[in-house]
TrEMBL record:
It comes from the Bacteria. It holds the Pfam family Porphobil_deam. Its EC number is 2.5.1.61. InterPro entries: HemC (IPR000860), Porphobilin_deaminase_cofac_BS (IPR022419), Porphobilin_deaminase_N (IPR022417), Porphobilinogen_deaminase_C (IPR022418), Porphobilinogen_deaminase_C_sf (IPR036803). Tetrapolymerization of the monopyrrole PBG into the hydroxymethylbilane pre-uroporphyrinogen in several discrete steps. It catalyses: 4 porphobilinogen + H2O = hydroxymethylbilane + 4 NH4(+). The gene is hemC. GO terms for cellular component: cytoplasm. Residues 223-299 form the Porphobilinogen deaminase C-terminal domain. It comes from Haloactinomyces albus. This is Porphobilinogen deaminase. The modification S-(dipyrrolylmethanemethyl)cysteine is found at residue 238.
């Protein structure tokens, strides 16, 4: 293929950094690329994410790709709606960044060191419910804006701390501001956090094969497929905050032989902010089934809770 690949990107520092990693991988493999900026309603609005809805950051980019304005779209995978877009193909899931959430707190403090009543900023119901469940007496408050805006609210003293995706900070070269990378046992990340989705048009098989061969990472793809399948199954059953994390581990298969398997954990908050947890391990080739199994466990646990004690 000798045409220049047009890579669609949003204009934020994070989006530009993400698209650049894709462009660089393609350039290293000998292909010419060009960045095309696409503005999205999510970039222009300051309303809380919970109000403007899923897909605000990704749909304009997907339209530009489907319309042929660009050849490749790069998204933060966790921002994509779970419903597939039949016009597009998920050509590559590059090796995932560290998926953990990160605390950026005043005076270098960790979560456990923040005094009760400390104001912690997050716009994410998933982060808020897990923070509250820790029992540290933190005051969790809503916050929006890009990474710099959120961090400034800590420097300015408006918040004692904010919680951000570690991957976002890594991609914009700001890891040094992190005061604690949160253990997934305390804070399960959003499904697909830290992963990129690299899409092309479904009929553009040349680009699909190129992206797949240059940058697809099968372990990352399997982990994200499981997490997203869990999220999709829960979306059908409830609208609660959801965390999930899967990864390829060395484990024993049914015959007792060492094998690569996929292990995952999920969490969902109930309406009265109790956390329900589930986990399972399965075949790397059946990632989506594994995600649905964990979702079924969570939905059963919720049903058992709703039917009340003693039943
Ligand atoms: N919700 C916005 C968003 N989408 C992707 C990232 C970070 C990068 C990633 O998770 O892959 C962020 C910022 C954040 O959650 O702190």
């Amino acid at each position: 293929m000798n045409k220049t690949l047009r890579i669609g990107t949003r204009g934020s520092a994070l989006a530009m950094a993400q698209s650049s990693t894709v462009a660089e991988a393609l350039e290293r493999a000998g292909y010419a690329t060009e960045m095309v900026r696409v503005s999205t309603p999510g970039d222009r609005s300051q309303a809380p994410i919970t109000e403007i809805g899923v897909g605000v950051f990704t749909s304009a980019l997907r339209e530009a790709l489907a319309n042929g304005e660009v050849d490749v779209a790069v998204h933060s995978f966790k921002d994509l709606p779970t419903a597939p877009d039949p016009r597009l193909s998920l050509a590559a899931v590059p090796a995932r960044e560290d998926p953990r959430d990160a605390l950026v707190a005043r005076d270098g403090l960790t979560l456990g060191e923040l005094p009760p009543g400390s104001a912690v900023g997050t716009g994410s119901p998933r982060r808020a419910s897990q923070l509250e469940a820790l029992g540290f007496g933190l005051e969790v408050r809503g916050i929006r804006g890009n990474v710099d805006t959120r961090m400034r609210k800590v420097t300015d003293g408006e918040f004692d701390a904010v919680v951000l995706a570690r991957a976002g900070l890594a991609r914009v070269g700001r890891l040094e501001v992190i005061t604690e990378s949160l253990d997934p046992l305390q804070m399960l990340p959003a499904p697909a956090q830290g992963a990129l989705a690299v899409e092309c048009r479904v009929e553009d098989v040349d680009t699909e094969h190129l992206l797949q061969s240059v940058m697809d990472d099968s372990a990352s793809r399997a982990a994200v497929a499981a997490e997203r399948a869990m999220l999709a199954a829960l979306e059908a059953g409830c609208s609660a905050p959801v965390g999930a994390l899967a990864g390829v581990v060395e484990d024993l298969d049914e015959d007792g032989r060492v094998a690569q398997r996929l292990s995952m954990r999920g969490v969902v908050a109930t309406d009265d902010n109790e956390l329900l947890r589930a986990s399972a391990t399965g075949e790397t080739t059946a990632a989506e089934q594994l995600g649905r199994d964990v979702a079924d466990q969570l939905l059963d646990a919720r049903a058992a809770l709703l039917s009340g004690p003693g039943q």
